[in-house]
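Lab notebook, entry 205. We have the chain sequence and a SMILES string for flavin mononucleotide, and the next step in the workflow is to get a structural model of the bound complex before anyone spends time on docking refinements. Request logged below.

Task: model protein plus flavin mononucleotide, output structure tokens.
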Amino acid sequence: MKQLPNYYDDLDLTLKEILGLIERGVKDRKSGFHNFVLATSSFENEPDARTVVLRGFDSKKMEISFHSDLRSHKISQLNENKSVCLVFYDEKKKIQLRIRGKSNINKSFHEAWNKLTNWSKRCYLTESPPGQESEKPSSGFPKEFAVDTPTLEQTKDGLKNFGQIRVSISEIEWLFLASQGHRRALFDVIETNGNYLIEGKWLIP
Ligand SMILES: Cc1cc2nc3c(=O)[nH]c(=O)nc-3n(C[C@H](O)[C@H](O)[C@H](O)COP(=O)(O)O)c2cc1C
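Result returned:
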């Protein structure tokens, strides 16, 4: 049987593990937490979900960020309803996080944009909005950089389509799978005057 980790029966160590995993997920492309599933509500109040890349985590403000094209469906949905659920799963560690919170869209946010490579900025240069029907198979990019990386000058048009989305975390649900018995816990994030208190409790898995 696999040895149990030190956080198995300890809420404080579980929270420490959570914060460390999210922080690593931002920097380490190979981390199981580098991508997560972002769930939103559609206009018809139907569930919708897709994978995005974890771009930032501010543990002082309990805020997670990701990037997206401002013309995409998810952005229209978030403009209508800020509530989101983020689902992370690390296959090796057998850890799932279900994070709930409210989103805020930073349109054309220079600071995040300037950190991107020209290759990444290219994602924001499609001529038509993502999700638009196309008569033929297409990447959506103009001919000049259908294959090649755009120059810095060419990427400038992408900024108007670029958004950084920040999620203020209100709760984190933890699930750890173990043959000795799973563990599940809920952490509430309570904000008072810019200070964040996190209260955890165990749940039956
Ligand atoms: C591994 C992976 C990472 C992705 N990362 C992002 C991302 O960071 N931002 C984004 O908007 N879309 C990302 N996508 C594409 C989305 O999953 C989705 O297909 C697209 O954004 C359209 O979603 P929407 O119509 O709900 O807006 C990613 C897809 C995959 C498979």
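Notes for the group: Residues 11-131+152-203 form a domain with the Pnp Oxidase; Chain A fold (CATH 2.30.110.10). Worth checking against the assay data. Residues 87 and 100 are 9 Å apart (CA to CA).
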